[in-house]
């Protein structure tokens, strides 16, 4: 275990923040370290340049007649701010209370390393793997994988595989092995509202000129009706209704009741679309979220100003069969239609990603469930995920392969937040899981 932790700690020390251009060198150094590690394991390794951050590919010797398994992961991480809220520095990993604390510990370096070290262990013990393996590690997941889709298209033949394994998702609770068979998609946009040419005295001009901050508030409020249903015309048109087997299965899953959600989040009351449980709202229903809102005076005391401009940022989580491009169009039309009088409204369309769905009862799905059961000593639960990994649907479309989502993140891992952490026991279980997974997949 010590050498396993040492390798993970080395990976965690690279501040590979993909969104921050000043960290481009660190992202690159992180990729270089992976290349060196994978080469040391006896794999054939390629580093592919992209306009931003490199893609790392590694393979064992492929043999005719064996199943080809692609394992995907990302070595980039989210920014660390607000850095003052971290108990220990984000890029100086430590073990405390049986957890590893660092940015990327769970999302996704810890989970990526569990696969890598699982493969290393099998190679050391058996001299070979039971499958043809392709590792695909990217450095741009946290910025929407802009260069991976063209890469997949250009290298479609070399990346051809039967199935994909990904550990970049969650477990519903500690000790409860979890297989994901769906992910929500995403569509992001920004609304910029402008009014007068500069900030105004709210007494001298207020009442005769529209207030951009009021307009933004109206636009934000226009997205939902009073019950929490999304009011964008046609928004639910392509939403696949939940099926009974899923609702019944999810009702039995621990860790996702309304009470659990309140306990984990600290929210005072459960809230969401009427007629659905928290699990259903999270995994099978779309959302409209305002991620940030700004404009006007935010300092101490009061300032009687009529701000010249205001803004808000939005993300919409999507479910099968919603199409992000179609939703972007409908949302833009909604904001334009609801633009309050007296101001200018500009809608800037951002990045997006398609929702993902696959059959959890496929042969490979069943093999993955057997592997989870062996690694955790318990039968796995089957869920869809609320989060998004846009490339998973692209891989389904371009490579023709489904992804087995074998998450090791717990609800209290604080991914994307200060004090991100990864349970050591999940790291160890993940390493074992990889061995069982390749064995079980090879059988089918
Ligand atoms: N690993 C997460 C996604 C995730 C987390 C899925 C937990 C399921 C459970 C991934 O790194 C992530 O944060 N994705 C972004 C995608 C976006 C930047 C396009 C997300 O979901 O916000
Ligand atoms: Zn993430």
Automatic annotation (TrEMBL):
Residues 181-342 form the Peptidase M20 dimerisation domain. It comes from the Bacteria. InterPro entries: Cyt/Met_Dipeptidase (IPR051458), Peptidase_M20 (IPR002933), Peptidase_M20_dimer (IPR011650). Keywords: Hydrolase, Metal-binding, Protease. This is Succinyl-diaminopimelate desuccinylase. It comes from Rubritalea halochordaticola. The gene is dapE.
